[in-house]
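[Discussion] Sanity-checking designs against the backbone

I'm trying to build intuition for which residues belong where. Below is a structure token string of 297 positions. I'd appreciate it if someone posts a full sequence so I can compare it with mine line by line.
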């Protein structure tokens, strides 16, 4: 059994409630979690005694949920690497990812940030698997959030679906936009004949990007960008679609001028921490290669 466990006291409004209803409605566990607890080695306890989801709860009861151990995929081996940890607690791990490192393993890379996180867990004797709350492209730098257990991941996934998690980026694009601030609302789908590229297409998924010009950098512009949706390559595709591809992004029409990757950096993240019951906000500065582009123009 894992060391992931939660304890709650039954209140006035939950008196007489079934355990199933208490966990699903009051504590927002998913039905699949309850199934895993039952069949994969977890436990439900009331006042220290093992119970099941049909148990009737009374005011003052202490409900304890012990989650089963989560198995690590055999295809993902730990790889020790330096991690720039911005924040960590029992539930979440926030890392400032460097460029040239994918978030999760791919056939094009020998290592990934996720494997570095697995090694970190192992070194610290944490029996955990990988739950990436957000992902960045290999050459995008910045904030990547990992949940340390499934329940923590599920709660933040709900925030992503409800669009209450806020993410913003810095991007350096070619040229100067006609409007210093605006919204790009164009659906995105796969490009015909490619498994990697995306494009704006009528039958794609809805995608909305808000941008604001921060600084003119010679023939380029530094933008602050907020994602209102999270499609693959969304910023890169949207900026290319309006004629201002990211500097260095040769996949979508950018030129490698003073930088060897797409000039994109995940700069800030805001989310409601469901266990601390407060909103956390994090912000980091640009990577040196993007600073160099700005300072030399």
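Best answer:
Here's mine. Compare freely.
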């Amino acid at each position: 059994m894992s060391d992931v466990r939660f304890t709650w006291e039954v209140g006035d409004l939950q008196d007489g409630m079934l355990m199933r209803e208490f966990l699903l409605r009051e504590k927002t566990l998913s039905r699949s979690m309850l199934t895993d607890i039952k069949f994969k080695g977890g436990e439900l306890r009331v006042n220290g005694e093992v119970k099941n989801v049909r148990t009737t709860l009374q005011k003052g009861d202490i409900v304890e949920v012990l989650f089963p151990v989560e198995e690590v995929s055999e295809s993902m081996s730990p790889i020790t690497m330096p991690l720039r940890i911005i924040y960590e607690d029992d539930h979440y791990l926030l890392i400032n990812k460097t460029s040239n490192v994918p978030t999760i393993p791919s056939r094009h890379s020998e290592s990934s940030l996720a494997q570095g996180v697995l090694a970190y867990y192992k070194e610290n004797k944490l029996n955990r698997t990988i739950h990436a709350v957000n992902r960045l492209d290999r050459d995008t730098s910045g904030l990547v959030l990992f949940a340390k257990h499934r329940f923590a991941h599920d709660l933040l996934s709900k925030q992503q679906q409800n669009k209450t998690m806020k993410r913003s980026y810095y991007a350096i694009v070619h040229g100067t936009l006609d409007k210093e601030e605006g919204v790009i609302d164009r659906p995105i789908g796969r490009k015909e004949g490619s498994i990697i590229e995306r494009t704006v297409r009528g039958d794609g998924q809805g995608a909305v990007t808000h941008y604001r010009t921060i600084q003119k950098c010679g023939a380029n512009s530094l933008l602050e960008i907020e994602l209102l949706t999270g499609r693959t390559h969304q910023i890169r595709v949207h900026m290319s679609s309006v004629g201002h591809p990211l500097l260095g992004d040769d996949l979508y029409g950018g030129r490698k001028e003073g930088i060897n990757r797409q000039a994109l950096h995940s700069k800030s993240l805001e989310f409601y921490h469901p266990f601390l019951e407060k909103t956390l906000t994090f912000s980091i500065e640009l990577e040196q290669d993007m600073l160099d582009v700005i300072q030399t123009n």
